[in-house]
Amino acid sequence: MRTRVQCLFQGFGSFRVPLRFPSPHPQRSLARANGPVLTGRYLNNPQGGEAHGGRTAVARRESGPDFVEAIARGLDVIRAFGPRQPVMSLAAVAAAAGLPRPTARRILLTLEELGYVRAAGGRFELTPRVLDLGMSYVLSRGLWEVARPHMEQLVARTRESSSVAQLDGPDIVYVARVAVPKIVTLAVTIGTRFPAMPTSLGKVMLAALPPGEAERILAEPTRSGITARWQPGAGERAAALREVRARGWALTDEQLAPGIRSVAAPLRDGEGRVIAALNVTVHAAETPVEVLTGEYLPLLLQAAGAVSADWAACQAAPQIVKPGGGRVSAGQTG
Description:
- The chain is 37% helix and 23% strand.
- It has ten helices and 15 strands.
- It has helices spanning 51-54, 69-80, 90-97, 101-114, 131-141, 143-158, 200-207, 211-218, 234-247, 289-316; strands spanning 2-7, 15-18, 36-39, 87-89, 117-120, 123-126, 161-168, 171-179, 185-187, 193-195, 250-253, 260-268, 274-283, 319-321, 327-329.
- The strands form four sheets. Strands 1, 2, 7, 8, 10, 11, 12 and 13 form an eight-stranded antiparallel sheet that branches. Strands 4-6-5 form a three-stranded antiparallel sheet. It has a two-stranded parallel sheet with strand order 3-9.
């Protein structure tokens, strides 16, 4: 069985590697999920919208005296590219980023000189160097390297896909994934954004918040571009989150979209705080709730506990500054 292992890099592509890594640097190849039934919005388009492949012109921000507009515009240009628009004309980039064409042109040429953009025949595309921007987040947190072996083992035992997500306002954002290719699957890549409440991952993280804070967050509009099947009122949301708090895990049964069923458990740091959530996702036509909660849930809870324990151990380990400025825990020095 082969799996697609992904880590956070702003939603551009994915890696396919064997379930067991032969080396710490697996060969990378572009891969896509088969038969998507639902596609979420990406981190590179937090504003949502439908113009230009789901991207709207971005209004200038309310900013203070320290706000650097040039940096914001450069990030807007990078975000203009997406899964369905890997190569764009100057006019398309300017429209998607909400910028005048001369401004967009200068930014693109700057990004080209820095190695983040490639120009050919009057059109532009991002280069793999853009992945460094997202990977800096994951590597600085270290959570992916800690979670990866446990996620691989979980997927090997369940033969179902597993993901890690974190909460971003009223949405979840996927930051790690080990996927099992199937004919019918949830089309998720790193950076995909879904409304939090109708997902098992979101319920787990919302339940970890004080009830008032969770309700305040859920009052904000989603930036996912997705309308979930389940639209609970305040009372129903509160009851659902109380249930999750009481049992320590969450179930979603086709509340986000038809056919999507999942369970999730929290990932905690050394102080017991919920920092993310780990799930197992199945298709409702293949896996009944009884199998999901009776067979897969214990394996998920075991994996989540192992990730949390390893993460706490990494936090507790002394940090050694390497030559060149890097850091490594004392346990990794051999």
